Amino acid sequence: MSLNRCKKLTVMLLIVGLVLGLTGLAQAQPKSGFAPKVGYFMPGDEDVEDIWGSDFTFGIDYLYAFPPYGIDFSAEYFAKEEKQTFFGITDKVNWRVIPLTATFLYFLPGKEGFSPYIGGGIGYYLTKFDFEEDWGDIPIFAGSAEESGIGFHAQGGFTLGENFFVEAKYSTADVEGVEAGGFTILVGYRL
């Protein structure tokens, strides 16, 4: 997915949220609590994007709200596997990223069920890379590497009603020379 398509999708989601928010839902106030969330992650590094591509991600967060501010603690999970067979030899590689983040949020004044917010924060990014090579059912080689590093992010989104939220996040995290961050669009429901 190209960056232009991502921008168009983000603008489209924000417009849909604005329209829904202005159609008469109850006044939205940020609500403290846990929230499962699902979304779509697009790696920021072109090499990572070329090899792995984009895919779904999921996570959980906890928002401590003290309007008009909030602190959000979040964990997300993204994994992608690629498998290729050439002359009977199968190579399987798996890449996983788990960002553990803390975000300071500011909730802008809302209208009838729609409350936009912006924020930024820091995260600890755990990555794991597994490689396995087999010839038929006979293992030839296997290896893995785990690395971690600090990253930063900016995000914006909106709440609809008390529980539902949509957000977009851009993160950057250099983990041993590999960019583990990227662009993520998430949808969640605060319990």
Question: Distance between termini?
Answer: 32 Å
pLDDT average, as an integer? 83
Unreliable spans:
18-27
User: Widest sheet: strand order?
Assistant: 1-2-3-4-5-6-7-9
| SS-based class | mainly beta
Give the overall shape, derived from the CA principal axes.
Answer: elongated
The gyration radius over C-alpha positions equals 19 Å
Helix-residue proportion: 10-25%
Write down the CATH class: Mainly Beta
Main beta sheet strand tally, sense and closure: 8 strands, antiparallel, barrel
Total strands: 9
Q: Could you describe the 3D structure shown?
A:
- By secondary structure, this protein is mostly beta strands.
- The chain has one domain (3-182): Beta Barrel (Porin).
- The chain is built from two helices and nine strands, in the order αβαββββββββ.
- The chain has helices at residues 3-21, 46-52, and strands at residues 33-43, 55-66, 69-86, 89-107, 114-135, 138-160, 164-175, 178-179, 182-189.
- An eight-stranded antiparallel beta barrel has the order 1-2-3-4-5-6-7-9.
